[in-house]
Every structure is written in structure tokens, then in C-alpha cells.
Write a structure and sequence with these properties.
The protein is an alpha+beta fold and about 170 residues long. It has five helices and six strands.
Length: about 170
């Protein structure tokens, strides 16, 4: 029973940190736009949580995946392909051990969001982005858009997930 309490506490702490720390990883009035013409959507920090993840690849990060209202409705209804207007955001942070939490637990077991890594967006517009499966991609670090070479790797990476409309994340209600 204690494990469940710790798990619930960790999820609540991570969700709280998403809204407190996320602002540091990008700005709604970001300079420029990605090669797909995407800017950081105004109000995206207020979107609902689709899921959270720990990616152990080269970033070894914590991620919060958020969706606008169109995305959340499609996820809840199990609607694929996602409708035009869907926007999915991925916020990533490095993670650090929490000495404060570990003191309470009596051992090193708690990790929290550390410095931000970047913010990514997938925007569904089947007409505008027909050449990339209906999705436009964007990535921002410190509010600045990623270069063209990096963004050209997005579609090939997502293409194997055609059955899920090229979206990796499953909804975690």
C-alpha cells in the first residue's frame, strides 16, 4: 500500500512540476518558426496531459506529452487517424535525484525534472502537410526553432507508426 502512495505522490509531483518548470523550456512568442511554419502555440502550457514518459535514449529524459482539446477528444474517443487541428506537445527535461524527497524515503529513489531539454510539437493538417503523412513537426530549445536538418529526421522516425497515425504516445487516462 505504501508503494501505491509513493507512486501517486511521484505522479502528482511530476505533474505539478510540468506546469511550474515548463515555462522555462520555451516561450509562446518564440522567434521564428520551424521549416513547417509552426510556432509555439499560445496557451500550450495549459493543455491536458496525455501521458508522461521516461526516455532512456541519448537524452535520458523525463517527458510530458500534452494535447490541445482536439487531441484529447480524439484520444478519449480512440479516433484514428487524428483529425485536422490536433496538436500534440512533448516537453522534455533532464532528470535529477531529489535529495529532499530521498531524505523522506530514507534511500535514493526519487527523481524530478531538472533543466529543460526542448519542446516538440506535431500539428495535424492533412492538406498542408500531405508530404509528411499529414503532420507538421517543430522543435524548440530555449524558445528558438531547431534547424532544418534536424526537423527533416522527424517524419522518417514517425513513419513506422502508420497504424497509430504516426504518433508514439498512447493515452494514459
Amino acid at each position: 500500500m505504501k508503494r501505491i502512495g509513493y507512486l501517486v505522490g511521484a505522479v502528482v509531483a511530476l505533474t505539478s512540476m510540468i506546469f511550474c518548470i515548463a515555462h522555462a523550456s520555451g516561450h509562446a512568442n518564440a522567434e521564428g518558426a520551424s521549416i513547417f511554419g509552426i510556432k509555439i502555440p499560445h496557451g500550450s502550457r495549459d493543455w491536458r496531459v496525455i501521458s508522461v514518459a521516461h526516455e532512456k535514449g541519448s537524452n535520458n529524459d523525463l517527458r510530458a506529452i500534452l494535447g490541445n482539446d482536439v487531441a484529447i477528444k480524439a484520444y478519449r474517443e480512440g479516433k484514428l487517424p487524428f483529425p485536422d487541428g490536433t496538436i500534440i506537445a512533448r516537453l522534455a527535461w533532464s532528470y535529477v535525484s531529489s535529495e529532499q524527497n530521498n531524505k523522506v524515503f530514507g534511500r535514493p529513489q526519487s527523481f524530478v525534472a531538472g533543466p529543460p531539454i526542448n519542446v516538440q510539437f506535431m500539428v495535424k493538417d492533412s492538406g498542408k502537410y500531405a508530404a509528411t503523412g499529414g503532420w507538421g513537426f517543430a522543435q524548440f530549445k530555449d524558445g528558438k526553432p531547431a534547424d532544418e536538418a534536424l526537423l527533416k529526421t522527424c517524419f522518417p522516425c514517425h513513419q513506422p507508426f502508420k497504424a497509430g497515425d504516426m504518433v508514439f504516445t498512447h493515452y494514459s487516462p
